[in-house]
Each structure stands twice: as structure tokens, then as C-alpha cells.
Write a structure and sequence with these properties.
Belongs to the N(4)/N(6)-methyltransferase family. With 654 residues, this protein is α+β, with helices and mostly antiparallel strands. The protein is built from 23 helices and 24 strands.
Length: 654
């Protein structure tokens, strides 16, 4: 057998590299070769001839020659019936004729791309200086940073209020229905704390189980929540997003998808980043959402007025992702201008009268007639003769030869075809759906959404957000087009809780994460309102009556007791006592020298109380604030026995 043949047979032994018909997927092989995939390399090393050809021996160490390997598999032998190297290929190439898309020489690059940014901002207007942990130079720091964390302050919240959590629910029957392991947590979860660390902490329980992720991250406009003090603000945002999207992908099920709300400020860069993380082949759609009208201050801006946001969608594996068809309301289609009299007496008795006569006869509006008799409102249309089967063509010709007789072609799995005088009879019932509890004329959803009003949503959920709040109808559409009842929905930029509120009302399990403090307008407040029967947003459309519950929990902070004491202090004397305790028991920033502080204590006393509080808070370590689960039994952290039990239950006793 030739070397090419041996390589083909070897690669077919890895199911990742073959399609349903058993054909090799060259792009997949290239992708994994570029990543120096361990399993691919182990596979190649099994064959002595292939090992000798694609590996170099450097002082007793085998080095994979990926460039040679990729040139080899790019040979026309891997393209059946190919007579030219350029067949079926269009794209940019370098001067050596190598396709850029193949070598992935075009990628999005920015300062700090090889870093992890914790992103510990806690208030929308808080400016933060953060450490960029380099993946190569600081692997130990990153491993520690991303270890699973201890959770605390567990509560179950229902109509009767807040209760201490006594354990997580794991409903085997629910899990069987949705194809998940029987011991998967079936509680709704609301998590307060850093979303990067919370996502990594959820991997043990939810890896590969989340059907939909929807996020509405900061847009990095300069005036939004993204307030990090950095000379590379754009780079900081990209690093911030990359870190979170990479772990989000691990949480998605194979048939899951992620949808991200964004404006045009970072859209182009975000899409390239998503191509890199999820694969360009898994791109689903870019939806344009009209969020406002061209009035007010926007009208004075130069150039076209920006009234849109975007929602970009990617699948984990597009071949497995399933789209749930959606419809949108539209006006009455005036082409349907006839009404069938004697409808119940059989097609031979049908009489077609103008719609205007029917409106007079029944004394109603066109919309009332549509709701009551959609099957009797019709139009005639020329059939697409060239696009139909032989039997349909035969019936079309027959109906032309026998005037005024209605012919019916019965079709299994499809609507029957009605023909008269060579023309097809189209029924209005095929243009209506029940939307929000009402029969409505509809059309298929496109990627331009201008039918969901953003005005008048300020009171939805009983909470207020100054800007950026999304309508519940928007989230209902996103959730319903990607999930079935009972599926898990994740939002790790939860904000005021729109995603979780909608998921609760339409019967999806949800996990929400938020680190910013919205006070009385928090998602916690909103979800309590939902449980108590909130009637705003989509409630009337889905007949929401209240009920259900969720579990609330927080990431346990190392310095949380000090933060609370500082914020509650009323005198300088109290703050000085806290400082003494911080020196011995707190986790201070690496930039702080306690000796210098003590030497300049009089300067501290000269500050006003707010300035003193701010200074002490800044002296605490804000980049390593949480307790690692691996250290839960360490006495220094004083984790209660009940919290230990619940954490061990969450992490499966590991």
C-alpha cells in the first residue's frame, strides 16, 4: 500500500475525521494538525512508516513536522476525481501558493491575547486596574485562578420567601427526557460573583449540558460598564471576551448554540474571534435588531442614524444544532380576496365570493373573519409548472380541460393541492399561526427583527435599568428558536435578569451569573417578582401565573468580611481597627507595603471618611479574591459545615 493509502486508512480510525458516509474531512485534519492535537499525533505515531515520514528525531526527541504533513494531505489525492489543485478552491494565498485559510495565517491578534484577565469589576461605574496573567509565563497562577471555587450564602427562594438550602434537586425523570445524566442538577441557579471563575466552577456539573447561551456583554463603547483602566482598552475587551467564550464553549451541548447581543462597535472583531473559537463552519446567523427610532438626540449625529443592535449566533456543532421555526406577525395579505360559501357541503358545492361580500354578510372586520374562518379565505395562483412532479402536472392539465371542477391531489406529509381551471387554490389558513394566544397572519422569521418594541419596557420585571435593558419578547424568541421545554439556558452577563425571567416563565431551566451590583434592581429582585406572579413582559402572552423557585448562591470571597466591615464603618477609629486586623488576617494587594502605610498613618487620618474607606478597599487584593474548593477544609477560611456539605454535593463529592 502507498504511504497515501496507509495515511488514509489510519486517519479513518478517528471518527472526528470522517463524515457519515465514511469520507475523510480534510479541513478537520488540518485544524487538528495546526493545534498539535494529542490524539492525532498519537495516531500518527502508531504507524512506523508514517512516523518516519512526518517526525524528525532531534537528539532523541521526536518533533512533528506539521508543515510537511499538511502539504502532503493537501495533495489532490485527497480530492476525489480532482484534475487540478485549484478545483473547488477560491481564496487568498501567499506567494508560495499556500491557501491562507488552510494555514490559518489570518487570525485576530491583539496585545494580551495570550493572557487571562479575571475581570473583577463589581460596580457598573467602577474603574479597575487588573493583572494580565500570561498563559506561558504564569501557568501556575492561571491554574490557581481558574480552579473551582467555594460557594456560600446558599438559599432556596420561592413564593414563601428565602429558605436555607438543604440540598440540590436532581430529578432523574426530567434528565431522562432531555437526554442528560440522571444525576444532573435540575434546579434553577442564580450565582453572584465573577463570571469567569463561576463558569470554570460550573464545568464539573454542566460541561456539555447547556443547550443555549445568551449573553449581552458590555459593548466597550467607552460609556458602558466596561470601565477597565488600560492603555489597550480594545485589547482588554477582546481578552476579557476570549477567556469567557472559551469556557462557555465547553459548557455547551453538542447540539447547543451561543447568541451574543452586541452593537457595531466591536461586532467585526467579535465575529472573527468567534470564528476562531467555534469555527467558521458553525456560524448560524447575524440578526439585525431595530432598538429605537430616528428621533431625539440621535437625529443630530452626523451620518446615518444608528438605531440597531446585532445578535450573532454560533453552534457548537452546526450539523447537530436544530432550529425551531419561528413566525412573525404581518398585515393581512390583500391578495387573498375571495371567500368560500357552502364550505361544509363539499368542494363540488363551493362558491367563491368577494371578501367584501363576506364581511357584510358576517358583519365583522377582516381580522375577525381571519380568526374565525381562515380555511375559507382563498386566492387563485398560477402553479409553478416546471417545479412540480408528474402527477401534479397531470392534474394541472386535467383541470384546464374540465372547467369549473375542483381537483384535489392528496399528499402524505404535505398540504393537499387544490386546482381549478389550471390554477391552484391557496388557503389563508396556511398563513396564520397562534402568536401570543391569538390567531395572526404570519410570515417566516428573517434576520431583520423590527417587530419587537424597545420602548415602554422600563417597568418589565418590576426593576429599572438606565440603559441596555432588553425586552422579554426578544429573549422569548431567542430561547424558543434554540431550545425545547426543560432545556438548560445560561446567561453569564445576567444584568437585571431578563434571560432568566423569560426562561422561568416558559419552562426552561436556567443558570444566571452576575458580578455587577445593581442593588434593588438586581436579577434577584426580578426573579422574586416572577415567582410571585409578575404580569409584565411576556406574562399575559404565556398565561404566567407565578410559581416555581430557584437557588441563589455566591462565590466565597477571601476578603469579603473586610470589605463589608469597611463599607459599614462610621468612624476613622473603626477603620484603624479594621486595618490592624487586615495586616494579620487579610489578603493584601502585592502593591501594598504595610510598613509604609503605618509610617504615614497621619496622612491617612487627615483624609475624609469616604477617602479612607476607598484607600483601605484598594489595599485588599482584588485579583485573587475567592476561596478555592480544594482548600475548603482549611480552618483559615472558616467554611461552615453546611456550606462544606453543599459544595461537596455540587462538585459530586470530589
Amino acid at each position: 500500500m502507498t504511504l497515501m493509502g496507509e495515511l488514509k486508512e489510519l486517519l479513518k480510525g478517528d471518527t472526528r475525521f470522517v463524515d457519515a458516509e465514511g469520507k475523510l474531512l480534510k479541513n478537520k485534519i488540518v485544524e487538528h494538525a495546526l493545534k498539535l492535537d494529542k490524539e492525532l499525533i498519537k495516531l500518527l505515531l502508531k504507524n512506523e512508516r508514517i512516523k518516519e515520514h512526518f517526525f524528525k528525531d532531534v537528539d532523541g526527541i521526536l518533533v512533528f513536522d506539521k508543515e510537511k504533513f499538511m502539504k502532503f494531505i493537501d495533495n489532490k489525492e485527497f480530492l476525489p476525481d480532482s484534475y487540478t489543485a485549484f478545483k473547488n478552491k477560491i481564496g487568498l494565498a501567499n506567494e508560495n501558493g499556500k491557501y491562507i485559510a488552510k494555514s490559518k495565517e489570518v487570525v485576530l491578534v491583539w496585545p494580551y491575547k495570550d493572557c487571562v484577565l479575571e475581570g473583577g469589576q463589581e460596580k457598573p461605574d467602577e474603574k479597575r486596574k487588573e493583572i494580565f496573567h500570561n498563559v506561558i509565563l504564569a501557568p501556575d497562577e492561571i491554574d490557581r485562578l481558574l480552579e473551582p471555587k467555594v460557594f456560600t450564602n446558599f438559599k432556596r427562594i420561592d413564593k414563601d420567601g428565602e429558605h436555607p438550602l438543604d440540598g440540590f434537586r436532581r430529578d432523574a425523570e426530567i434528565n431522562r427526557k432531555r437526554g442528560l445524566p440522571e444525576d444532573t442538577i435540575t434546579d434553577n441557579l442564580i450565582i453572584k460573583g465573577n463570571n469567569l471563575l463561576a463558569l470554570h466552577s460550573l464545568l464539573k456539573e454542566f460541561r456539555g449540558k447547556v443547550k443555549l447561551i445568551y449573553i449581552d456583554p458590555p459593548y466597550n463603547t467607552g460609556g458602558d460598564e466596561f470601565q477597565y483602566n488600560d492603555n489597550f482598552k480594545h485589547s482588554t475587551w477582546l481578552t476579557f471576551m476570549k477567556n469567557r467564550l472559551e469556557v462557555a464553549k465547553e459548557l455547551l451541548s453538542e447540539d447547543g448554540s451561543i447568541w451574543i447581543n452586541i452593537d457595531d462597535n466591536e461586532l467585526s472583531y467579535l465575529q472573527v474571534l468567534l470564528d476562531e473559537i467555534f469555527g467558521r463552519e458553525n456560524y448560524i446567523s447575524l440578526v439585525t435588531v431595530k432598538r429605537s427610532a430616528s428621533t431625539g438626540h440621535k437625529a443630530i449625529n452626523p451620518g446615518p442614524i444608528n438605531v440597531t443592535d446585532y445578535i450573532i449566533g454560533y453552534a457548537k456543532n452546526k450539523r447537530m444544532w436544530k432550529y425551531h421555526i419561528q413566525y412573525v406577525p404581518r398585515d393581512y395579505d390583500k391578495a387573498y380576496s375571495l371567500f368560500i360559501e357552502n364550505y361544509d357541503e363539499g368542494v363540488d358545492k363551493w362558491k367563491f365570493i368577494p371578501i367584501s361580500e363576506a364581511l357584510k354578510k358576517y358583519g365583522c372586520t377582516i381580522y375577525e373573519l381571519i380568526e374565525k374562518y381562515p380555511e375559507r379565505i382563498v386566492r387563485f395562483a398560477e402553479p409553478n409548472y416546471s417545479g412540480v412532479g408528474k402527477e401534479t402536472k397531470r392534474i394541472i392539465d386535467l383541470s384546464k380541460r374540465i372547467p369549473n371542477k375542483i381537483f384535489i391531489q392528496k399528499r402524505e406529509g404535505y398540504p393537499d393541492i387544490y386546482l381549478k381551471n389550471g390554477q391552484r387554490i391557496l388557503f389563508y389558513k396556511d398563513k396564520v399561526q397562534k402568536i401570543n394566544g391569538k390567531i395572526t397572519t404570519v410570515e417566516l422569521l428573517t434576520n431583520i427583527w423590527n417587530d419587537i418594541p424597545f420602548q415602554g419596557i422600563a417597568k418589565e420585571g418590576g426593576i429599572v435599568l438606565r440603559k441596555g435593558k432588553k425586552p422579554e419578547k426578544l429573549l422569548k424568541r431567542v430561547i424558543e428558536m434554540n431550545t425545547d421545554a426543560g432545556d438548560i439556558v445560561l446567561d453569564f452577563f445576567m444584568g437585571t435578569g431578563t434571560t432568566c425571567a423569560v426562561a422561568h416563565k416558559i419552562g426552561r431551566q436556567y443558570v444566571g451569573i452576575e458580578q455587577l451590583d445593581y442593588g434593588k434592581n438586581s436579577a434577584l429582585s426580578r426573579l422574586k417578582n416572577v415567582i410571585n406572579g409578575d404580569q409584565t413582559g411576556i406574562s399575559k402572552a404565556v398565561n404566567w401565573q407565578g410559581g416555581g423557585d430557584f437557588v441563589y448562591m455566591e462565590l466565597m470571597k477571601l476578603n469579603e468580611p473586610f470589605i463589608e466591615r469597611i463599607r459599614d464603618a462610621e468612624t476613622t477609629e473603626e477603620l484603624l481597627k479594621i486595618w490592624e486586623d487586615m495586616k494579620h488576617n487579610g489578603f493584601l494587594s502585592y502593591r501594598v507595603d504595610p510598613r509604609l502605610f503605618d509610617e504615614n498613618i497621619e496622612e491617612f487620618k487627615a483624609l475624609n471618611l469616604d477617602e479612607q474607606k476607598k484607600l483601605l478597599l484598594e489595599m485588599l487584593e482584588y485579583n485573587d479574591l475567592y476561596v478555592n474548593y480544594s482548600e475548603i477544609d482549611d480552618d483559615i477560611y472558616n467554611v461552615s459545615e453546611m456550606n462544606k456539605k453543599l459544595n461537596k454535593e455540587l462538585y459530586g463529592g470530589c
